[in-house]
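Budget justification note: compute hours in this period were largely spent on complex prediction jobs such as the one shown. Inputs:
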Amino acid sequence: MATPRRPYPRTRLRRIIKAHSGMKLSKNADVLIYLNYTMFMNALVREAAIHARQAGERSFTPRNIMKALPVCYFACLF
Amino acid sequence: MSEYYQLNYQLNNDPDNYLLEFHPSGPSFNHYRRELRRIQNENKPPYAETENGLSEDDSTPEPYSPPSTSPSPPSSVATMDLEIMDMGRDVDETPVHTPVQRRARSLEPSISRLSMNTPNERYRQNPHYPHSSINTPAPPTPHAMAARRALEDRRMAMFTPGRTRRQSLREQRETPMLILRNLGRALAPTSKAIDSSSSPEKPSPNGIGNRGASGSARSAGRRNSDDDDELPIDRPRLSLPIDEGSSDDLQPPHSSILDDPSNITVQSVELPRRATSEGPPRRSFGYLGDSDVTPWDDIYGNDDTNPDPFAYPPGIAPHAPTDPEIADLQFPPGVGRESDFSLDMPSGLSDNEQTTTFYMRSPVVDTVEAVPEDEDASSSSSDSDDVPLMEGRQSEKDRLLEQATEPEEQQGEQPLEQPSELLDVGFPDLGDFEHVPDLGDAEMDALTRYDPETFAQDPVRPGDEWIGYPPGRPRKRRREDDESSRAAEAEAEAQAQAHAQAEARAQAQARARARAQAQAQVRVSAHNIQYPPVTNLFVRQVVQHAAQNSALGHQRLAADALETFSRASEWFFRQLGDDLRAYAGHARRSMVEERDLVALMHRQRVINAEQSLFHLASHNLPRELQQLLRSNNPGYQPAYPVAQQSGIQLQQPLVNAQSETVTGLRPFVPNPPSPSHAGEKRKRDEDDDGESDNESLVFPEDDDY
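Corresponding output:
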C-alpha cells in the first residue's frame, strides 16, 4: 500500500525548530510551524513576484528574492 | 450630365410630380423642399439663369463639370438645409437634392437608419408574451449605436466604390510646392543667382567652397598636406566670415548688469551647465592639433585682426575681450586652457581623420566668470559646486597629456580604468554575506587575497569567481573586460579565455560539490544542537504551492532561485526558533507549545480579527493536518493577555474554535476561564517532545524526503 503523500517532512522540521529554539516542541506545534512557514513563503513569493515583474523577468531570480526578503520579515515579524 | 439636366428640368417644370415619385407617402417633406427650391431659384446668380434655359446648352458640352453650375452652390445656406434634410431620409432612396460634389457625404448613413426606424418596429415584441424579453432587442446603448453606424458605413463604402475617385484633386494639384516650382520656372530665365555674402576666400586646392575662419587660421600647414589627396567632398562652412573689415565696429555683446558698478548682488551670470560626463568627450585641445597654435583666438576671436563677434558662445560674453593685453592675460598662450565652446568631432574618430561631421558644442562653464590665469588658481578660487567641474577639467587635462604622450594607445587603455570603480558601485546585497561563513578556507583565502588592481589590469584572470555574490552581474562585468582586452590582443585573449573556461568549469564543479557537501553536512545551531538543513524538494514544493496560491501559476524555479528560497527559509526558521524560545521562556516553560505559535502569528499579523487560525488552516493546510489541529486541542489561545492554562478541557477549544470561525471574533479575546479548572495544572504528554512521536503520526517519516 502506497503511503499517503506527506505534506511536509515532519521530523526534520521539528528537529530544525528544536535546534534553533533550544527547547522541546509540543506534539502538534509543528503543524502550526508549518502553517506559519507556508504563510511566510506565500508572502515571500508574492513580493518576489512583484519585484521580478518590475525588473521584467519571467521567473524569480535570487536578486528578487533577496529584495523581497526584508519586506517579508518586516511584514511577518513586526 | 443628362441626368442632372433632367433633374433640373423636372424641378423647374413639375416639382410635384418629381417629388411625389420619390415620396409617395409623405408630402410634408415636399412642402419644405419646394419652398427651398423656390428660394434657391430666386437667389440664383445670373449665370445660372442662363443655365436653366436648357435648349441652347444641351448640344454643346460644358467646359466645366456640373458642380460648378449647380443651382445650389455648396456653400449656400439653402444647400446646407437640404443636406440636413437629406440626412433624415433613408439611405436607399435617392435624395432629392444631390449636389454631385457632396453626394458621397450626403449619402453617408450616419443617423439615418436610427431615425427612420420607428420605435414600434424596433422594439417589436412577441405578441404572445408581450412583456417577455425574448424578441425584444436590447435598447440602443451608445456602443450599439456606434457599432450599427460602423456597419452601415462599411456597407455604404461597399456600395459606393468610387468614393475616393470623387474627391477633389485640387489640393493635390495646387500644393504650395507646386506653386513655388511654377514660379521658379517662370522666373528662371530672367533672374540671376545671388552672390554669397560670405567671405570671398581663396578657393581651396580642390576648388571647393569656403572654409571656416577657424579652420583656415588653425592649421594651414596641415590642410596643405592633407587636403590634396582627399576625396572631393564638399566641406561645410563652419562659421560666418570674420576676415571682412566691415565687422570691426561691431562690439561683442556683453551684459550691462555686470558692468554696472552699483551692482553688488549679481556678480556673475550662471549659464546652464552640463555635466562633463554627459557630453561628448572633450577632445577639442587634442583635435585642434599643434600645441604652439593657441586656439583661443580662433574660437573667441580675441585677435584684433580677427574680431568675430559671432564666434562667441551663445550667452554673455566675457569682459572687454577686445583689448589684446587683457586677452593675453586671460588666455596666456603657454597654458592652453581647454575650450568650453568648440567644434568637435564625434567620438570614435581619430584625430587625423578629416571628416565632414562636426557639431557645435555648448559651453560647459559660464564664461562670465573671470577666468583666472592659472589652473590651480581657478580650482582654488572656484565655488564648491564647481569642484567636480574643475576636477573633470583637471582629469581631462591629464588625459590630454596622456594622449599627447601616447596617442595611439588611448583606445585600448580607457576601459581599463573602469573596473575598479565598478567594483565600488556594484556592491552586492546585504543578504549575500550570509553565505560567507559557509565558505571553505581556501575560498575565504581567495576572497581576501583579491586585489582590485590586479583585477583591473588583468581582466582575463580566470579564477576569481565571487562566490557569495549574485551570479549575474560580476560575471557580466568580467565579460566586458574580456571584450575590451580582446580589442587589444586577440590571440592571447583566446588562449586565456579557453583557460578561463576550463577553470570556470572546474570551479563550477567544485562549487557544486561544495554545495552537495553543505547539503549533506549537519549544521549546528546557536544552542549547539545539530540540525538537518531544509530539503530543496520541500522548499520547491512550498514555493510552487505559494505561487499557485498567489495566482502566479506554475513557475519554473531556477536552481539559484531555489537555493535562495531555501536559504531564506533557513533564516526564517532560525528567527522562528528564537521567537518561540522567547515566548516559551516568557511563560517559564521549557517547551514550545501551540499557544506560543498562535501568539507569534498574532504578532506577525498573520492571524487577526478577520482571519482566524482555523480559517488560515483550512485554506493552507491539507485536511489531515487540519484534523490534527482540531482534534488535538491545545486551546489555541495565546498565552496573553490572560494565562489560560486551564483550556485543556476537550470540548472547550472546539467550542472556542467554532465561535471564532462563526462570529469572527478576535481570537485572543479572553474567554472567561471556567472556575473549575482554574487551578488545574496542565498535564503534559510525556512523549510529545521526542522522536517517539513518529509512529503516532499520520505520515511516516524518513529524512531523505
